[in-house]
Design brief:
Strand order of the largest sheet: 1-2-3-4
Number of helices: 1
Number of domains: 1
Mean pLDDT: 91
Number of strands: 4
Helix content: 10-25%
Low-confidence stretches: none
Length: 63
């Protein structure tokens, strides 16, 4: 089982949180995760700009 990620530079954009962490190979990855109930959106990106764009344009399918 891999070790849990240590996120830094976490910012909240609406219901989505964007954070930066290193993956298992030491590369920097940026993750966008929706914190709304019953919304399973999460994705990893190579750039911070892509993760923040995903956070800004995310619409929860559950209302």
């Amino acid at each position: 089982m891999p070790a849990p990620r240590r996120f830094r530079s976490v910012v909240r954009i609406g219901p989505v949180r964007v954070g930066t962490a290193n993956d298992q190979r030491g590369r920097e990855k940026h993750t966008a995760v929706c914190t709304a109930p019953r919304c399973d959106f999460s994705a990893d990106y190579d750039t911070r700009a892509a993760a923040e764009l995903a956070a800004r344009t995310h619409r929860c399918p559950v209302r």
